[in-house]
Amino acid sequence: MGEIVIIGAGFAGLCMGIQLRKAGYDDFVILEKAEDLGGTWWENTYPGCACDVPSPMYSYSFELNRDWSRLFAPQPEIQRYLARCAEKYGITKHIRFGVEVDTLEYDEDALRWSVTTMKGEELRPRAVVSGVGALHVPSLPEIPGMESFEGAAFHSAQWDHSYDLRGKRVAVIGTGASAIQFVPEVAKEAAELTVFQRTPNWIQSKPDIDMPAAYRLPGMPRAVRNAVYWVLEARAVGFAVDPRLSGLQKWLAMRQIKKQVPDPELRAKVTPDYTIGCKRILLSNDWYPALGRDNVDLRTEGVAEIRANSVVTEAGEEIEVDAIIYGTGFKVVDAMDHWKITGRGGRKIQEAWSEGIVAHHGTTLPDFPNLFMLLGPNTGLGHNSVVFMIEVQVAHILSCLRMLSETKSTTIEPRPEAMHAYNERLQKRLRKAVWNEGGCNSWYLDAEGVNRTLWPGFTFEFWAGSRKARPEEYILG
Ligand code: NAP
After folding, report:
1. What family does this belong to (predicted)?
2. Which residues are 4's β-sheet partners?
């Protein structure tokens, strides 16, 4: 087994497996480093972990779920949904758990990839699909003295559930999408909670309702999904058309601050000074109330040093703590830098990306035949569900595989000029977009300030332009 190797059993890898089976392919294996499936929805188990995209849209279009308990499903429910999908479509038997891929090397003579695992095993597939996602390598800040801390310290994606937070003095560093979900939960348990914010986020209210019984009526899941899709898509108007059209988004976020933050000092601290949309717009009903609690202190000065039992602020104040939780996000662009992938002629992927991370339709790369990347460069979204993008990319890959069998070819890779033209168009749009022009710094941008992560427009544009691979853009061998 293993003409096709898929790496990762999260939303992306499972979708690839399901569509391969539907298209009649059975000779594939999914390698998953964890002990169970779900990817990010297996690994992230922090208190309050839930989707911030409405679940009717944050699920496969071909497998709508009548059983979502809430509009924004909690993490265990999403993981169970994925497990059910894997079972229903006969994918579970294709997954090998606890297998972490180390290197990918293209063998030009055999026209096969050599995939080696951390345990030293080698697989020799014709094609490799990466479904590793962008948000799985925890990013920790470099703060002097971190290693000398004697209390509990962990990243939000590696939550230590054995640590009892009740009655403890806790510091949280970071106030992003994960922190705004777990801080309100930690605040209920900790005796004292100090939250270190580097940049405030624009936050809107979260319509986190219980799914009404009517949602289960025939036709409703599809109708709700369509409605949610267009509501979310409307959020792209501000960056895909004109930032001045984001006025409503800003008004909604300001209304949340005015409603939930009566204290003028706290209000000033949490109000962003950059254009809305520059960083991901977050949704929460309990973040601001949590910051207003008596046992919670929001600090806007940075952490200068960590000592055995305390954190020292840049203002020189020493705060004693029992635990530090890092809500500092993930390595995104630089995580790809560490991939050990060698293509034709011994070309390392880092050489191919020496001027920045690119791919054709976010999926394929010249000199790396039959290598496909799900959620590759510039396929991320700030406004809608990435599951939609995954499905478009999976359709693209299937059309590449069809091209191979129809032409009786063995390899497929994009023409360099086609890839450059695609990326030139994409970057031209991005240069004027809110992520570059909005006055904020974010993980969307690489070290040169180029956006290598986000799709610049409406998702239906990606669907229209990328779901089918065009023969004239590819080289078959
Ligand atoms: P994040 O949004 O990147 O937030 C990281 C936070 O840590 C930011 O507040 C950042 O401040 C701060 N930070 C990073 N390095 C720091 C340093 N050296 N010193 C001080 N502060 C530092 O990460 P995340 O919250 O884990 O979320 C990552 C992504 O995961 C999200 O954008 C989202 O796409 C996804 N996510 C999705 C869901 C969902 O429900 N679908 C839930 C959670 C996460 P700055 O803003 O100043 O950089």
Report:
1. Belongs to the FAD-binding monooxygenase family.
2. 28, 127
Ligand 1 centroid to Cα of residue 122, in Å, is 36
Q: Which residues contact 202 (CB under 8 A, 6 or more apart)?
A: 249, 250, 253, 272, 276, 277, 279, 281, 282
CA-nearest of 307, 422, 317, 442 to 365 is: 422
* Greatest Cα-to-Cα distance within the chain, rounded to the nearest angstrom: 69
Q: Which of 49, 146, 198 to mutate to test the pocket of ligand 1 (most atoms within 8 A of CB)?
A: 198
DSSP string across 402-417? HHHHHTT-S-EEE-HH
Q: Region 257-273: what's the mean pLDDT?
A: 97
Instruction: Give 437 Cα–ligand 1 centroid separation in angstroms.
Output: 20
201 C-alpha to ligand 1 centroid (Å)? 10
Q: What are the backbone angles phi and psi of residue 52, rounded to the nearest 5°?
A: -105, 15
Residue 442 near residue 278 (C-beta atoms within 8 A): yes
Q: Quick one: which of 339, 200, 340 has its CA closest to 282?
A: 200
CA of 229 to the centre of ligand 1 (A): 24
Cβ of residue 331 lying under 6 Å from some atom of ligand 1: no
Q: Is ligand 1 within 6 A of the CB of residue 272? A: no
pLDDT tens-digit map of 327-382: 999 987 666 767 899 999 999 999 999 999 999 999 999 999 999 999 999 999 98
d(CA 361, CA 160): 38
Ligand 1, atom 21, lies closest to the CA of 174
What's the one-letter identity of residue 384?
Answer: N
Q: Of ligand 1's atoms, which has the minimum distance to the CA of residue 199?
A: 47
